[in-house]
Each structure stands twice: as structure tokens, then as C-alpha cells.
What we know:
This protein has a domain at about 330-410. It contains no helices and 35 strands. The protein has strands spanning about 1-15, 20-40, 45-60, 70-85, 90-105, 105-125, 130-140, 150-160, 165-180, 185-195, 205-215, 220-235, 240-250, 255-270, 275-285, 290-305, 310-325, 330-340, 345-350, 360-365, 370, 375-380, 385-390, 400-405, 415-430, 430-445, 450-465, 470-480, 485-500, 505-515, 520-535, 540-555, 560-570, 575-590, 595-605. It has a 28-stranded antiparallel β-barrel. β4 and β5 form a beta hairpin.
Amino acid sequence: xxxxxxxxxxxxxxxxxxxxxxxxxxxxxxxxxxxxxxxxxxxxxxxxxxxxxxxxxxxxxxxxxxxxxxxxxxxxxxxxxxxxxxxxxxxxxxxxxxxxxxxxxxxxxxxxxxxxxxxxxxxxxxxxxxxxxxxxxxxxxxxxxxxxxxxxxxxxxxxxxxxxxxxxxxxxxxxxxxxxxxxxxxxxxxxxxxxxxxxxxxxxxxxxxxxxxxxxxxxxxxxxxxxxxxxxxxxxxxxxxxxxxxxxxxxxxxxxxxxxxxxxxxxxxxxxxxxxxxxxxxxxxxxxxxxxxxxxxxxxxxxxxxxxxxxxxxxxxxxxxxxxxxxxxxxxxxxxxxxxxxxxxxxxxxxxxxxxxxxxxxxxxxxxxxxxxxxxxxxxxxxxxxxxxxxxxxxxxxxxxxxxxxxxxxxxxxxxxxxxxxxxxxxxxxxxxxxxxxxxxxxxxxxxxxxxxxxxxxxxxxxxxxxxxxxxxxxxxxxxxxxxxxxxxxxxxxxxxxxxxxxxxxxxxxxxxxxxxxxxxxxxxxxxxxxxxxxxxxxxxxxxxxxxxxxxxxxxxxxxxxxxxxxxxxxxxxxxxxxxxxxxxxxxxxxxxxxxxxxxxxxxxxx
Length: 607
């Protein structure tokens, strides 16, 4: 049995309005788990769990919405039975019903009811051992979550591996009903692949695969991916990799978009200390009204040497490609362009002529959508689009984000992109390190409506770090001169494990940065302080405390914020007490001010 209580008090203030929301939730659940078998373990074994819960929620909002009270029941189960588990043919039946909860800062906790029932059958002695399954899946959002989805599907998949040869296949079919957006379609996907060892070891291998997906209904798309690759060991010191790929995509209303890609490289290793690699690549992208051809190559040299006082690493890279863009009547769509978020340097999208109105930003999984201007802002300058992350938003500095957008190239054009970089690193006795990097990149427009340099970038980067596992200090410097977004940046960071009596662990870290933008001679600064305590207090008790303070002074805003999180878990006999707390606030001149206070208390008892 589990009892839980959640309490949240949050507020957001802007120059236009003020919103304060208090949410109180009390939950009580009775959970029963069991496992066993019927007649004989080889005939039928099962795992089953079930829960019955009651929930009461009060939401009080000062602003546009008044006080609300919600009462509900949560019935959950997870039942799985397996038949003939040691027989060549086995079967599994299962049913799952569960409630999914997601806490969102400054929004009411969202809830969804997920139900799934299905069956699986396995054939272990087929030529390709296979598994057949059918399932029925329901997702019903509650409260603030308005998504509703129903899927009914079947699939068969199998894998065979023998004597270095691997075969795989899969066929899937789903009837999808996206009730929240009133869209229904059939989704069919087929996949087959093979991999063969062509030498004495797995270093010599040839692989091929084909994937076809078709959607019919309110969503109408066709996609195909075919690929072949060869990894060969040409000698004791030389390996080669070659890959050919074809992608075809078409959607109702947007036309076809087909891409052919070729990549090949050879790697040479000399005494494990010098690694050199030479590669070539080519790409053709065909779409309605236009075509892009890109071909180029790269050279990589890496040297590593263990010396008497440490380790020395050197690296050099040269890459260049030529891109021809034919006349296009429609914009070119770019999907999932990876970028690294930073408070000190705006992100510049890779392609010239990007349309800011088409920019879509998500996290690295593509599942979380970020919003403008809450999470980021866009600036269009001389044909380039810059992305700056917003203070108090959901994008964290250093995080990888994916950007979708479209751009209209100048028809027809040819440009050459050339880059070279040098890196040197020296590690002395595992406690002192030096790094130095140089980067030059030029994008020249060779023909088209005009000629000249589109972008010219020169960067110098250096870093020094000293310390070990218990204490460390790092300094980084970067000087970047470019046609777009020239800046100079320096950052210091450090951490120390402070002395504390066992079993307490206490760690403190701090960082500060300053970025000067050369175009307008404006400066951004930021400081962050963090501390964390963690301890096992006696038998069965775990406690932790984390605190953070951040101050930022950016070109568009300035302010500060702090956060304190605490956790206490105590287990004795069959009872568990879990107490968690989070409190913090952010205060900025332009961005919205935010305050939140949250408490979660859960009591679980096993009988």
C-alpha cells in the first residue's frame, strides 16, 4: 500500500500579467504483486500485479482560471503469462494498464491513462528464429494533456546468426487513430538485412539492408532506405570502410525528395601511435524543381605518444567539399540539424538563406518541442539566421538540440567549403593538462548571382586543467573571428570534494564566463555556484541536498536565480518513506520572473 501527497506553489510574473498556481494532490494506492506457475513451471508461469488507487487534487490559480477540485480513481494492472517456456514454440499473453504522470514547472501536472493488451508467439527452431505479436494500445490524456491515440497492430520479426552470417527481417502493420488531431491512417513497415563475414575475422564484413515504410489515410507518405557497406582489413595496418545509401521520401502535397550518398575511407595505423585516415564522399539530393550535388574529401592525422612525464596527443584535419545547387522553385527542407546550445555564443544555422518562419527546435530525441521566445530567440542577419537561448527557458547550455528549417538557395550557385584544424594536448602525470586548438573555415561562392566569400571563420581555443578526482580547476579561452558572430570568450570552472565525516560526501563547484562580441563590443557574463551533500545515514536511510545559484548578464537581459532540492528516503522492514522537496526562483529584467515550491511525500507498505 502506498500513500502520497504532492504540494506545489508556483508563480510567474511579467510586465503584462502575474500568474500564481497552487496544486495539492493526495493519493492512496493498494498494490499487490505475485508470481508463480500452474501445474508445472514448464507449462505456464505468470507474473501479475494490480493496484487500486484514489486521488484528490485541488488546483487554485490566480489569473485567468479559478479554483478547481478533481477526484479520480486509478486502477492499474500488469499481467503476463508465458506458456511452454522451454518448448521450441512458446506463447505469451499480457495486459497492462497504468497511469503516466508528468510534472511540468508552472503548468498543472499532466496525466495520461495507458492501456495495452497483446499476445506473442515465438518459433525458436525456424530457419530464422522468429516472433509474432499482436497488440492493442490506447493513450488517453487527462487534464492538461489532451492527446488521445489508439493503435492496433501486428508484427513478425526474426534474427538468425550462424558462422559469422547474420540475417534479420521485420514486418509491421498498425492502424493508427490520432483522436486529438482527428487523423487516421494505416502504417506499414518492412525491413530486411544481411551481414556476411568475408574473411577470417569480423574485421572483413559486407552488409546490406532495405527498409520500406508506407502510410495511407489522413497522413500519406512513402519512404525507402537502401544501404550497403563493406568493412575490409586490407593489411595488418590498413582498414577500409565503404558505404552506399539511397533514401527516397514522398508526401502528399510536398513532392518527392530523394538522396543518394557515397562515403569511403581508409585508415592506417602505425605502431598504435600514428593513425592516418583519408576519406571521400559524394551526395546528390533531388527534389521538385531543383538538385544539390556535393562531393569532397577529408584527411585526418592523429598522433599519440606516452612520454616519461605523461602523454602527448596531436591531431590535424583537412576537409573540403564543392556544392552545386541547381535552380529550385521550392525551398529546401533541412531536418534534424544538430547544434550545441550556449549562452555565450549564438547558434548560426549552416545554410545561407534560411527562413526564420520555418525554424523548429527540439531536444536531441525530437520529442520535446521548444518555443519562441520562451526558450529561444531568432535573429536574421545578412542572409544568416542566429538562435540565442532564452534566460529562464528549458534549453540548457551545452545541450544538443535539433533544428528543422527550410532555405531557398540562389539559383544556380556553386560554392566551396574548406576547413582545417589543429589540436594538441599534453597530459602531465594525470594531474595537469594543456589543450590548444586552431580552426580555419572558409565558404567561397564561386559562381551564381555573385561571387566572393560567404563566410570566413578563424578560431583559436586553449584550455588548462589541473587536479584529480577530489579537486580540479579548468580555464578555457576561445577567440573567434567570423563573418557572422565574432566573439572572445573565457571561462573558469572548478570543483572540490570537501572534507566530511563518513559516510557524508560533500562536493562544491563553481564556474564563471565572460564573452565579448566584437561586432557591437558588448559583453555577456555569468556565474554559477553549486554544492551537493549525499549520505547514507545509518541502515536504510539515504539523504541528499543540492543547491545552485546562477547570475547572468546577457546582451538582451540580466538576472539571477537559485534552486534547492532535498531528498530523504528511509526503509525499515517493509515500509518505505520517500520525502522530496524543491524550491527556487528566477528574477530577470525582461524575462518572466518565476517562483516555485514543491513537496512530494510517499509512504509505501508491503504486506
